[in-house]
Design brief:
2 strands, 6 helices, single chain, mainly alpha
């Protein structure tokens, strides 16, 4: 993963304070189990857990997110998914290439990225008079004929 030096330091400090917790989770890497059959389980190291070192479940995540959102000064209607859009728009407004944004968001196609975020990419300075400029230049380079502009 391509991490900024500061982000790498912050994550390293988090790992130092809160080492990854080994937990058992259902293994759905090969798909969901057949109905009525228990899922296979496997040990997984989690970098972010609750205070007891257990996986963060939906309800707990909502509680944590509310606190983080408030601490960051985000609006009350800001969802965790809003953070994804914020990340995407920061990439774009910082000059990221569309394929880099696609890869960062793990979109399956560039089309999805562009359909969602095309309005965030800065418009190129487009000249309305490209053809007339070319004609003026061509005429000026030949016989001294000028085209009124």
């Amino acid at each position: 993963m391509d991490l900024d030096d500061h982000v790498a330091l912050v994550l390293a400090e988090h790992v130092r304070k809160y080492p990854p917790a080994l937990v058992e989770l259902p293994d759905i890497t090969a798909g969901t189990p057949d109905p009525g059959k228990p899922a296979k389980r496997r040990a997984v190291s989690l970098l972010f857990t609750d205070e007891q070192g257990k996986p963060i479940h939906d309800q707990r995540w909502s509680d944590l997110w509310r606190g983080w959102r408030k601490a960051a000064g985000w609006p009350e209607d800001g969802t965790f998914h809003s953070l994804r859009h914020y990340f995407a728009t920061r990439l774009i407004t910082s000059g990221a290439d569309p394929t880099d944004v696609q890869n960062a968001l793990r979109h399956s196609s560039l089309r999805i990225t562009l359909e969602t975020y095309v309005h965030w990419w800065p418009k190129k300075n487009r000249r309305r008079n490209i053809v007339s400029t070319a004609l003026r230049e061509a005429a000026g380079n030949r016989s001294g004929i000028t085209i009124p502009g």
